[in-house]
Automatic annotation (TrEMBL), chains A, B:
Pfam families (UniProt xref): Ykof
Protein's UniProt name: Thiamine-binding protein
Positions of the Thiamin/hydroxymethyl pyrimidine-binding YkoF putative domain: 11-90, 114-192
A GO molecular function held by the record: thiamine binding
């Protein structure tokens, strides 16, 4: 939260934690990092979370790839994180905005994801209308699961789920209201998912 | 995100996931729920997260107790969640506002927590000033750890950490701008914490 300019920067960031519910959690996290091409994003890990920053398509691509690689171990894994763009306190540093646009992670295997998200368009008097519009978009795309307090449920194949999240994150911010936050919690290979 | 009134409701909610990085994750979660007195909050669990709602002191008390009980197993556990109040889309349902104020969970054992938080005062033009004020409060209380992109690090004994979070959540909302969101990620018994 450095006190600096920005607001119109194209930097997108994702601060997240990947949680394998397994004694092998270290190996699973390290394995996912090893198998994911993170060369197009800036990345830093501390004792609580990891942050990736860069062009939006690469940020979503890396987030999905890490999740998919962790899930293919078959273990129950969870991803919790916050996508951010346009924060007035953001800095121009730590970005990889000159990377080309070609996505580096192209594993297209299927993986069921149950998730929940919330949109927080900052300093925008019409923010509730924006939230409802993106929930309607989820319904139209067939990934809407359920309404609930403080969030909306999104589920389906991981590629459809991430495609929806990237679309919602694009449409919920504007040049007039550039600061957008989106929280996401995902559950994969949960015993609660039964035959999914 | 039901489309209803509110905004002045005293309901506080916390939607969270508790993630034990252990093959015994189901037993640890069930054990924490069993040992925590949740009688003063409304609670609902689905396949991704759990939500508790009620008077603010009980919501924070239950959140801390669940975390503490899970951590005392010695396993590496993580808590990710979002505190919310004053959402214009909130409903009056599913609340326990008539509960008396006596806190039900009083386990005062010490437990080191490393965590990160972000405040999102909604629809408030002065939101950045509010965020910086609460970060300054963390510094004054001795729980501030580090600055970082999109969040601030808070650490120390679990009781000090939760006391700070409840204080920040109280001070960052007002009758004029009642809708406040606070995300929190906590790590306990992490191998990264070394001798803490």
């Amino acid at each position: 939260m450095e006190q600096q300019h920005c607001g119109t920067s194209p930097i997108v960031g994702f601060r997240f934690s990947l949680h394998p519910m397994s004694d092998r959690f270290i190996d699973i996290i390290k394995g996912a990092l090893h198998e994911t091409d993170t060369s197009r994003v800036w990345m830093h890990t501390d004792d609580v979370s990891t942050v990736i920053r860069g062009k939006q398509p690469h940020v979503f691509n890396v987030a999905k790839a890490l999740t998919l690689h962790a899930a293919k171990t078959g273990e129950h894994v969870a991803l919790s994180g916050t996508f951010s763009a346009g924060c007035p306190g953001d800095t121009e540093g730590d970005v990889y905005l000159k990377a080309d646009d070609e996505l580096q992670n192209t594993d297209d295997r299927n993986q069921y994801v149950s998730s929940q998200f919330a949109l927080y368009p900052m300093n925008n008097p019409d923010y509730m209308a924006i939230i409802y519009r993106e929930v309607d978009r989820a319904k139209a795309r067939g990934v809407f699961n359920d309404s609930m307090h403080y969030a909306s449920g999104i589920h389906g194949d991981i590629h459809d789920v991430f495609a929806f999240y990237e679309k919602a994150f694009t449409h919920a911010r504007s040049s007039r209201f550039p600061h957008l936050v989106m929280t996401v919690s995902m559950s994969l290979n949960s015993p609660s998912h039964g035959g999914q």
